[in-house]
Amino acid sequence: MTWQATALTLFPAMFPGTLGQSLAGRALERGIWSMEARDMRDYGLGRHRVVDDTPFGGGAGMVMRPDVVAAAIAGIERAGRPLVYPTPRGRPLAQADIRRYAAGPGVVVLCGRYEGVDERVLEASGAEQVSIGDYILSGGEVAATVLLDACVRLLPGVMGSGESAVEESFADGLLEYPLYTKPAQWDGRDVPEVLLSGHHAAIAKWRHAASETVTQARRPDLWAAYQARTGQDTPRIAGPRADADRLN
Ligand code: ADE
């Protein structure tokens, strides 16, 4: 069964965009997933196909009209798919959400423009409001692309044997350890000795300690949760590359 992505947007030419390339693009060509972009302007009102109006209560910018957005939503086959509305006001999008979306039949993403969408249509449609981070994009399309990219890479058959579908970061609540490849010496910098040793247990231990160090330095939120879960106190020494100063 093809995993189905639908974007409701005023800029249908933004899709598939980057999702038409590389891993997601090959999976799209192979029919593992499908991408449909519906132009909400088609549901706009009057000769000028108006989709927005000024906010009640005053303030800057324009708000997308609930009647127009509702008609656009009604115009698609939901087929059991969740309706997702990317917005900086949403709850943080997490890998657990991505896993849930990828495991289902697909998603419908409502891409807002202007100041956003009238709250009533979000309530009425049961839209899941998600944020991809604490910054403001000019519209939902880039956030939708982020969400879809993260889903598509998890679909069965998308990752070849050469690619790892393992969610290194976040799988155990830690950031991923640093990666190195050839040459072993570059620009006066050495690869950590243990990685050249062939001792798998020692390598695994170093990597885990490096994950702990980098997580403590960069993500106090993840580190606190990890400490609470594991009782881990301070990170073990992870080698000269992992000292906190170098990580910022
Ligand atoms: N739309 C605009 N900014 C956004 C953000 N940070 N996350 C999700 N959707 C958005």
Automatic annotation (TrEMBL):
<dbReference type="InterPro" id="IPR029026">
    <property type="entry name" value="tRNA_m1G_MTases_N"/>
</dbReference>
<comment type="similarity">
    <text>Belongs to the RNA methyltransferase TrmD family.</text>
</comment>
<keyword id="KW-0808">Transferase</keyword>
<protein>
    <recommendedName>
        <fullName>tRNA (guanine-N(1)-)-methyltransferase</fullName>
        <ecNumber>2.1.1.228</ecNumber>
    </recommendedName>
</protein>
<dbReference type="InterPro" id="IPR029028">
    <property type="entry name" value="Alpha/beta_knot_MTases"/>
</dbReference>
<dbReference type="InterPro" id="IPR016009">
    <property type="entry name" value="tRNA_MeTrfase_TRMD/TRM10"/>
</dbReference>
<keyword id="KW-0963">Cytoplasm</keyword>
<comment type="function">
    <text>Specifically methylates guanosine-37 in various tRNAs.</text>
</comment>
<feature type="binding site">
    <location>
        <position position="112"/>
    </location>
    <ligand>
        <name>S-adenosyl-L-methionine</name>
    </ligand>
</feature>
<keyword id="KW-0489">Methyltransferase</keyword>
<dbReference type="Pfam" id="PF01746">
    <property type="entry name" value="tRNA_m1G_MT"/>
</dbReference>
<dbReference type="InterPro" id="IPR023148">
    <property type="entry name" value="tRNA_m1G_MeTrfase_C_sf"/>
</dbReference>
<feature type="binding site">
    <location>
        <begin position="132"/>
        <end position="137"/>
    </location>
    <ligand>
        <name>S-adenosyl-L-methionine</name>
    </ligand>
</feature>
<keyword id="KW-0949">S-adenosyl-L-methionine</keyword>
<dbReference type="GO" id="GO:0002939">
    <property type="term" value="P:tRNA N1-guanine methylation"/>
</dbReference>
<dbReference type="InterPro" id="IPR002649">
    <property type="entry name" value="tRNA_m1G_MeTrfase_TrmD"/>
</dbReference>
<comment type="subunit">
    <text>Homodimer.</text>
</comment>
<keyword id="KW-0819">tRNA processing</keyword>
<dbReference type="GO" id="GO:0052906">
    <property type="term" value="F:tRNA (guanine(37)-N1)-methyltransferase activity"/>
</dbReference>
<feature type="domain" description="tRNA methyltransferase TRMD/TRM10-type">
    <location>
        <begin position="6"/>
        <end position="224"/>
    </location>
</feature>
<dbReference type="GO" id="GO:0005829">
    <property type="term" value="C:cytosol"/>
</dbReference>
